[in-house]
Design brief:
By secondary structure, the chain is an alpha/beta fold. The chain contains 18 helices and 18 strands. The termini are far apart. About 9% of the residues have low confidence.
Length: 548
């Protein structure tokens, strides 16, 4: 079940209801501490040292509860009740070689500016060069507004307990929040049911059994035909990326329609997809079950497409995904076709659609999504960004927590458009359009999270080539499961090689080094020969001794 976004007061009410239902405060603290310890173990190496800064309240109690679980690690804990008395100790500890700092000074209860002594502690933490994991909220940050109360911890990760808080999601808070992860399953009762239309935090369990399992009697004609109109002079790669993104969602067929200027360049890179020339709306195959328009249609030659695309948007009885340059060609108002319409703008494109700046979009992302949907016929919208939003004019807004800054590169949006089109092509996947759009965004980000673990400098192609393995069909990708965290991708590599299975599979992405493999094989053979020689010599020596 998706998690509600809870204000400070709503979170406290949830806790009170849990205590009234018989849940034990100390038991919850112990479980939070265990979750924190496990998170640290998964995100660090065994030799890494960890500094825990624990404040006077329950936030500090959560951090202190992690210490026994980390008994086999190099851990130093400093309890800060009087910041003036321990400042020198904290400053010295921060100068020591270590790998992680945990901020457990203040939680959601802080609602006033911090005094000078506390600010000095926070400034010292911010000046250190190590990653900082903030417990629940970064100390000094208002949990409701996302505004710093004078000074706040600049965390690289924030591990919020139970449910996300509104101040952690707003774009303005990102310099303090860093990567937001939700630690749930800590012993509280079930969270409150989100109000109708309220934002919800997407979790992996929201997509259990999705996409639906295929019937044993199915064939390629059973799973739809995704058609992609993409690519122009100088932008042919976008067509390739969109096609591969669509293929990774496993529709029965994928066809790319492109312009004569790039036909050869696109066709030369396609294996499974069919490739054809765009000669008007009649070019769309009769068997098509979805249409993706926009990736790579940025060259001047694409002006001839605008009228046809506008007509398709209004009347074509096919589900449509519109991305990139084609967004600007859409007519506003009601759509005559009853088939789904999905837009995938980034903040700049969304702003141009409704006449505001990208900065204004980022300052009011939910409102922007609703307005874009309303302006273009109640269409579904995936508003890309740090926490991608999914929704339409009415109903829930999904907040996606997967993905990373590595996705900030050309081509990743083309992959997402293709993935959405590949899903829309499959009638069995269209039963819940919110889930379909949310899954496309969530899976897109999850692939990036997986890639980050094994290849620091991956490219957009890799998102698509990962394909069905990341969908949970291939157990080699589930190298470590973390059911107690949501929206945070896989754990980091650790001393025990937790990502080794996935690393082996990632070779499919093009990390081929035959010479290296041959060398390793040769070395193994030499070692085997030496071992055999020694064994034979030992046997011969024993036989000679017996004869004597």
């Amino acid at each position: 079940m998706s998690l509600p976004v809870l204000s400070r007061d709503a979170m406290r009410a949830w806790e009170r209801d849990s205590w009234a239902a018989g849940r034990n405060v100390q038991s919850v603290i112990q479980r939070v501490g265990w979750r924190l310890a496990r998170w640290l173990a998964e995100h660090s190496r065994a030799r890494d040292s960890i500094l825990l800064l624990a404040g006077p309240g329950h936030n500090g109690d959560d951090v202190r509860a992690a210490v026994p679980v980390l008994a086999d690690r190099d851990v130093e804990i400093i309890t800060v009740r009087d910041p003036s008395a321990v400042f020198d100790c904290v400053r010295l500890a921060l100068r020591s070689p270590r790998r992680w700092v945990v901020d457990g000074l203040f939680g959601i209860g802080l609602n006033r500016p911090l005094d000078g002594a506390w600010r000095r502690i926070i400034e010292a933490v911010n000046a250190c060069e190590w990653p900082v994991a903030a417990m629940d909220v970064p100390s000094g940050l208002d949990a409701d507004s996302g505004q710093p109360l004078g000074e706040a911890i600049h965390a690289t990760h924030t591990l919020t307990v139970g449910a996300p808080k509104p101040g952690l999601i707003v774009e303005a808070a990102s310099p303090w929040v860093g990567r937001l992860e939700v630690l749930n399953g800590v012993g509280l009762i079930e969270p409150p049911v989100p109000a109708t239309g309220a934002p919800v935090w997407l979790e992996e369990r929201d997509f259990a059994g999705y996409p639906p399992q295929r019937a044993s009697s199915s064939h390629k004609g059973s799973h739809g035909h995704a058609v992609i109109l993409a690519g122009s002079l100088g932008y042919h790669g976008a067509a390739v990326l969109a096609a591969r993104g669509a293929l990774s969602m496993r529709p029965g067929l994928v066809t790319v329609l492109t312009l004569p200027s790039v036909y050869s360049a696109v066709a030369a890179q396609m294996a499974a997809p069919l490739v054809g020339l765009w000669k008007g709306v009649d070019s769309i195959p009769a068997s098509a079950t979805s249409l993706v328009v926009g990736p790579g249609l940025a060259a001047p030659e694409c002006e001839i497409l605008q009228e046809a695309i506008a007509r398709c948007w209004q009347r074509l009885d096919l589900p449509m995904v519109v991305d990139a340059s084609a967004l600007a060609w859409l007519p506003q108002g009601r759509v005559e076709s009853r088939e789904p319409r999905l837009l995938t703008p980034h903040p700049g494109e969304a702003g141009r659609l409704i006449g505001i700046t990208a900065g204004e979009v980022q300052g009011g992302r939910p409102e922007t999504l609703r307005e874009v949907s309303k302006t273009f016929g109640q269409s579904w919208v995936i508003l890309k960004g740090r926490h991608t939003l999914i929704g339409r004019t009415t109903g829930s807004l999904g907040i996606n927590g997967t993905g990373s800054p590595s996705m900030a590169q050309g081509g990743t949006g083309d992959v997402l458009a293709g993935m959405a089109g590949g899903l829309l092509a499959q009638r069995e996947a269209r039963g819940d359009l919110f889930k379909l759009a949310a899954f496309a965004a969530w899976e897109h980000g999850r692939r990036a999270d997986l890639l980050d673990q094994v290849r620091p400098h991956w490219i957009a192609e890799d998102l698509a080539i990962l394909g069905a393995g990341v969908l949970g069909k291939d157990p080699a990708f589930d190298f470590q499961k973390r059911p107690e965290t949501s929206g945070c991708g896989p754990p980091r590599r650790n001393e025990h090689g937790g990502a080794s299975q996935f690393r082996n599979r990632i070779k499919l992405l093009g990390d081929k080094s035959p010479k290296s493999n041959q060398k390793k094989a040769s070395q193994k053979q030499v070692k085997a020969n030496v071992a055999t020689q020694k064994k034979n010599q030992a046997i011969a020596s024993q036989q000679a001794s017996k004869k004597k």
